Amino acid sequence: MMLLRYGVMLKGQIFINNINKNFRQYRRLLELNCLFFSTSPCKMEDVKDIKYGPLPADSPYVKPFRLYYTQNGVEKNWDCLKVHDSVAIIIFNVTRKKLVLVKQFRPAVYYGIVSEEGDPNNIDYEKFPPKIGITLELCAGIVDKNKSLKEIAQEEVLEECGYDVPLDKIEEVLVYRSGVGVSSAVQSLFYCEVTDELRKNKGGGVDHEIIEIAEFSIEEIEEKMKPGNVHTSPPSFLFGILWFLTNKAPLYR
């Protein structure tokens, strides 16, 4: 009887230990989920008091100027902007076969939409909610540090998306000029593959940046790229996705 009772107690203790172990694992899973995958869409859309005015002369990001020249014997001029060059990175998570993209509120996009259909000086926030200015983009950043382009790309991937990617795993795709009608800034496009193990933080940007991570399967991104869809995304995003679908996606179907 004592042996039977002891056996029941022992089995009961093992059962309780298994419950505790499973609970600890489940709690850890929840903690990781909060750390790596939680987002705050309401925070990004909490935009108000929008107004606009003349550009200060000391802007560190945009320098307007007028270029004068003679072409085919005719004197001409062109209004231009001096802006930073940039990097953009196509990120593919091979663990879950998902493209890793980012969302953020772009004031210029919001202003462009409002100015087409409303009054930028008197904005109707019900008709023009801030979410219309949120774009879907590649991870990207300006070139404003004394580092190589790959190092800047590596830093942006960590800051915005939370992945610590080795430099030798970042592949250069090509270099092109954006905004050729106004700025002609150089953008360098890169590609890298990541795994869940490379995820070191939840990303989201630095300082006061508010960036959300958005993941899409190959099938989901193909759906978004179908003819007839309207995008607020920049051309670099559309080109980068098409490059991925042509050159990398076939390897993971």
From TrEMBL:
Keyword set, alphabetical order: Cytoplasm, Hydrolase, Magnesium
Gene3D superfamilies: Nucleoside Triphosphate Pyrophosphohydrolase (3.90.79.10)
E.C. no: 3.6.1.45
Native source organism of the sequence: Culicoides sonorensis
Gene: CSON012876
Xref: PROSITE patterns: NUDIX
Name of protein: Uridine diphosphate glucose pyrophosphatase NUDT14
Molecular function GO labels: metal ion binding; UDP-sugar diphosphatase activity
A GO term from the CC aspect: cytoplasm
Needed co-factor(s): Mg(2+)
Enzyme class of the recorded protein, top EC level: hydrolase
Compartments in which it is found: Cytoplasm
Lineage top rank: taxon: Eukaryota
Any one of the GO BP annotations: ribose phosphate metabolic process
Residue stretches making up the Nudix hydrolase domain: 82-238
Subunit: Homodimer.
Record's keyword annotation contains Transferase: no
Lipid biosynthesis listed as a keyword: no
Function: Hydrolyzes UDP-glucose to glucose 1-phosphate and UMP and ADP-ribose to ribose 5-phosphate and AMP. The physiological substrate is probably UDP-glucose. Poor activity on other substrates such as ADP-glucose, CDP-glucose, GDP-glucose and GDP-mannose.
SUPFAM superfamilies linked to this entry: Nudix
Catalytic activity: UDP-sugar + H2O = UMP + alpha-D-aldose 1-phosphate
